[in-house]
Specification:
Number of helices: 12
Helix content: 40-55%
Structural class: alpha+beta
Bound molecules: flavin-adenine dinucleotide
Shape: globular
Distance between the termini: 40 Å
Strand content: 5-15%
Largest sheet: 4 strands, mixed
Radius of gyration: 22 Å
Number of strands: 8
Length: 403
């Protein structure tokens, strides 16, 4: 693998860097660094205005095909854009779900009407989306979704509860996995619906997290309505569409994260260099280990993207997700160990948490969302190492022997 930019990629990197330098100025200078881990609530209005600025200048959805308003950028340039974006300390994006998950899913499975209706507002940053998958008894076991959708004339009527729905409180639309045929086997009776959030049948209740902020929510559907034509893919074939969305979840964005992680590690290194612990051999070993693992994360992610022109294949994506989530969690723990007793005190006023404290608290979530570490290990065990598969819930319930 050649780790250097090709001449085209180098030109693209320069263009991206110049645009970011020229535009993270004026009113947007204040947006730098907003919305990082554990601070997702920060500067929503400014970040939404920034999203629209990105959209107006063609810097959202760079990997979408040109016919849908993207730049048709190859994977290498999508990676470069993410790296340069984080390097410039640009604010966390507000429509990750729309651009990264729903958009590619609609391009692959949507009707022409759905594409015409929804893709441009995502690209322009004027309609924000959230992901309605998880329920109290359907997280890792997503096929257990119980939220029901029933046809009523030209509409679907949705009843049930979702949980952990990130950004629901700021979203205009939600892509919801619903049960449309309760008689069919678990995976076969699901549909993928697009549901408007601003209606009487939907109640969003923010969940207060240990960072003190509320990134995600409970969402209650009580007779919520959406159009009969707003099913993506076929009715009762939502499992296939839902899995396609998940496949888009991680990939090029990881390399932007690596740049952000490096900044966090450098921050820690600076603290240690200026402290009286810089000669502590155990600490030095842990810092070197963090540096090496981060380098491996970068190389492994680059390898998983090499030759790929779409979602990364599941085993590679699982390896990256497992490594990525564990690295960040461990960095948070290392930061607290370095700070020692100071880690227990809210230093910033008014009793606000510091960046490192927020990283420590929020990174616990990194090993859960997007598929927990245990689930990634199951996938790697079964699909890469060829270990015996885990017993399937349906089969065991019907009395099949555990392999
Ligand atoms: C910050 C954050 C944001 C999120 N955002 C969204 C969102 O926007 N939309 C959305 O739909 N969901 C979202 N989620 C939910 C996320 O997808 C789920 O938390 C995740 O899938 C795990 O499901 P669960 O929480 O129900 O845990 P469970 O599935 O109940 O798992 C509990 C524990 O058991 C383990 N476990 C479960 N099954 C197995 C198994 N077969 N083998 C071994 N161990 C197992 C898990 O690893 C975990 O440790 C978010 C979660 C977090 C933390």
């Amino acid at each position: 693998m050649d780790l250097h930019d090709s001449p085209e990629d180098a030109a693209f990197r320069t263009e991206a860097r110049h645009w970011l330098e020229a535009n993270l100025t004026g009113e947007f200078a204040e947006a730098r660094g907003l919305g990082r881990a554990g601070r997702q609530h920060q500067g929503r209005e400014l970040r939404t205005a920034w999203e629209r600025k990105l959209g107006a200048d063609g810097w959202t959805c760079v990997g979408w095909p040109i016919e849908y308003g993207g730049r048709g950028a190859p994977v290498s340039q999508q990676v470069i854009w993410n790296e340069e974006y984080v390097r410039a300390d640009a604010p966390a994006r507000v429509n990750v779900m729309g651009e990264g998950l729903l958009g590619p899913t609609l391009i692959a499975y949507g009707t022409e009407e759905q594409k015409t209706r929804f893709l441009n507002p995502i690209r322009w940053g004027v309609e924000l989306w959230c992901q309605g998958y998880s329920e109290p008894n359907a997280g890792s076991d997503l096929a257990n979704v119980q939220t029901r959708a029933v046809r009523d004339g030209d509409e679907w009527v949705v009843t049930g509860q979702k949980v952990w729905t990130s950004y629901a409180q700021w979203s205009d639309w939600c892509f919801v996995v619903c049960r449309t045929d309760p008689e069919a086997p678990r995976h076969k009776g699901l549909s993928y619906l697009l549901v408007p959030m601003d209606q009487p049948g939907i109640e969003v209740r923010p969940i207060r997290q240990m960072t003190g902020t509320s990134e995600f929510n409970e969402v209650f559907f009580d007779g919520a309505r959406t159009g009969a034509d707003l099913v993506v893919g076929e009715v009762n074939d939502g499992w296939r569409v839902a899995l396609a969305t998940l496949a888009f979840e991680r990939g090029v964005g990881l390399l932007g994260d690596v740049v952000g992680f490096r900044r966090e590690l450098d921050h820690l290194l600076n603290i240690v260099r200026t402290s009286n612990r810089s000669h502590d051999p155990l600490l030095r070993e842990r810092l070197a280990d963090a540096w090496i693992r981060l380098y491996i994360l970068r190389l492994n992610t680059l390898r998983s993207l090499t030759g790929v022109d779409g979602p990364v294949a599941p085993p590679q994506a699982s390896i990256s997700k497992l490594y990525w989530g564990s690295w960040h969690r461990d960095l948070g723990e290392l930061a607290m160990d370095i700070l020692g007793a100071r880690a227990e005190v809210a230093e910033a006023l008014p009793y606000d948490l510091t960046d490192l404290q927020r990283i420590f608290l929020f990174s616990r979530a990194d090993t859960i969302y997007g598929g927990s570490n245990e689930i990634q290990r199951n996938i790697i065990g079964e699909r890469v190492l060829g270990l015996p598969p885990e017993p399937k819930v349906d089969a065991v319930a019907k009395g099949a022997p555990i392999p």
